[in-house]
TrEMBL record:
<dbReference type="InterPro" id="IPR001466">
    <property type="entry name" value="Beta-lactam-related"/>
</dbReference>
<feature type="domain" description="Beta-lactamase-related">
    <location>
        <begin position="23"/>
        <end position="343"/>
    </location>
</feature>
<dbReference type="InterPro" id="IPR050491">
    <property type="entry name" value="AmpC-like"/>
</dbReference>
<protein>
    <submittedName>
        <fullName>Beta-lactamase family protein</fullName>
    </submittedName>
</protein>
<dbReference type="Pfam" id="PF00144">
    <property type="entry name" value="Beta-lactamase"/>
</dbReference>
<dbReference type="InterPro" id="IPR012338">
    <property type="entry name" value="Beta-lactam/transpept-like"/>
</dbReference>
Length: 469
């Protein structure tokens, strides 16, 4: 029997949120990390509070308010997974049946994968389809169909189910399955099946709808320069199911509360079965690197283990914008942070660390740091080139040790300020290293490993990139 996500507690058992204090902390920390604009939202039970800071666009000076819209990026994936689970509830979809049962025309680079890949593979990022394909297939309602028609041009990066590798393409494919079953576009299915029943009037997927509201512009920076607005507002429409929701913090919290309540809206309407909501939070796959984000993945949700407490959540990153959501079911608590540039991840670490300690008595894990004493590793076997769509990683031998050169390729290369960045690889163990790039004080893990069939990979940025030379 599934247990409910939401655990009711007397309201008096939780410390009240002191919004003026958190407003001051948001302001101070956002200024420290050069974040142009941010919104912090906290929900417990039926109550929510929102604090806003800064400007939405440094060129226009429009002030950030609690009802401002930000791109939430890959938080969208949990919404898409929720739509999938609604179809599972209705008996219209089987998580473990081949996707080709719904899309018999599906073609992939590996015909074997095209016949066998399931929705569970897509929701858990284990399909092996090259994940960072951002082909612009137009603005029409047929953009997902046209994107999927070209998926046979995307490489098969790893054998089906062999490892975890973050896969935007897989969620676009999942969105196309939703379209095929519902008979409408993913955007309309999202509105009709989630946004409208939840009363989310400021959650949109198209730029022309975002323009009706007070909407953030992304910012980026070169080196030590201050953040400036990015040249392009959003990604192609075909990326919708993977990351194109634009929303307010209040709307993100309302979506989180749907899951905390086991699939029931505040007015008592059931949008998702309790069993499906619970299944989304359960462990589906372990991660090659448990330091970058969570320790495992559910169906759409990332799973976090913080000092013995289980949380779910997701992060999102688009062109100069970043979003964070963490949900602590045992304490009926959801916290979101929406930002439009700067060192957003460092703002998240500082702010959420303080807030969860104060409001829930839960400590965030310490961010990864190099060991106090240098670790001697013979890592010559890792030298070489690793490549997938959108990314080339070269592991080089420098005068003072190994170095990692990261090159952004493909359509996104002209949208980032520095497509080529290089930094030292600091060993932690025989197979794990840390890197730190110039735009952030945070260290990021880099893990070398082989899949069961023997091929070598580097896991960095939640992606498994195969060694090609």
């Amino acid at each position: 029997m599934s247990r409910p996500l939401r655990i009711d507690h007397p309201r008096t058992s939780f410390p009240p949120l002191k919004l003026p204090y958190w407003q001051r902390r948001l302001t101070k920390l956002a200024e420290r990390h050069r974040v142009p604009g941010a919104v912090l939202g906290v929900a417990r039970g039926d109550h929510s509070d929102v604090a806003a800071y800064g400007v939405l666009n440094k060129d226009t000076g429009v002030t950030t308010t609690r009802d401002s819209l930000f791109q939430i990026g890959s938080l969208t994936k949990v919404w898409t997974a929720t739509l999938v689970m609604q179809l599972v509830d209705e008996g219209a979809l089987d998580l473990d049946a081949p996707v080709a049962d719904v899309l018999p025309e599906l073609r992939l680079a590996d015909p074997h994968v095209a016949r066998r890949v399931t929705m569970r593979h897509l929701l858990t990022h284990t399909s092996g389809i090259d994940g960072d394909v951002f082909t612009d297939t137009g603005r029409g309602d047929d953009c997902l169909a046209r994107f999927v028609d070209q998926l046979d041009e995307a490489a098969q990066n790893h054998p089906l189910g062999a490892t975890f590798s973050y896969c935007n393409s897989g969620f676009v494919l999942a969105g196309r399955v939703i379209e095929q079953i519902t008979g409408t576009s993913w955007d309309r299915a999202l509105h009709e099946r989630l946004c409208a029943p939840l009363g989310l009037r400021r959650t949109v997927t198209l730029p022309e709808d975002a323009l009706r509201f007070r909407t953030a512009m992304g910012h980026d920076a070169e080196g030590d320069q201050p953040p400036r607005p990015v040249p392009t507002w959003g990604l192609p429409r075909s990326a919708g199911p993977a990351g194109l929701i634009t929303a307010t913090a209040e709307d993100v919290l309302a979506f989180a509360r749907l899951h905390l309540a086991g699939g029931i809206t505040p007015d008592g309407t059931r949008l998702l079965s309790e069993r499906a909501a619970q299944a989304m939070t359960e462990r589906q796959v372990e991660l090659p690197d448990a330091l970058s984000l969570g320790d495992s993945w559910g169906l759409g949700w990332i799973r976090f283990g913080w000092a013995g407490h289980r949380l779910i959540g997701h992060d999102g990153s688009t062109l100069g914008q970043a979003a964070f959501l963490r949900v602590l079911p045992a304490q009926d608590l959801a916290v979101t942070l929406l930002t439009n540039g700067g060192a957003a991840k460092d703002l998240y670490w500082d702010l959420f660390g303080e807030l969860f300690a104060e409001q829930a008595g839960v400590a965030l894990p310490e961010p990864p740091q190099p060991p106090a004493e240098p670790v001697a590793v013979d890592a010559r076997r890792y030298l070489g080139r690793y490549e997938r769509a959108g990314t080339r990683i070269d592991i080089l031998q420098g005068t003072d040790g190994l170095r990692l050169r990261h090159t952004t390729t493909g359509p996104l290369a002209h949208l980032v300020p520095e497509p080529v960045v290089e930094t030292a690889l600091v060993p932690v163990s025989d197979s794990q290293f840390l890197v730190r790039f110039a735009d952030s004080p945070s260290w990021t893990p880099v893990t070398f490993y082989a899949v069961p069939t023997g091929e070598s990979y580097v896991h960095h940025g939640m992606r498994a990139t195969p060694k090609v030379s």
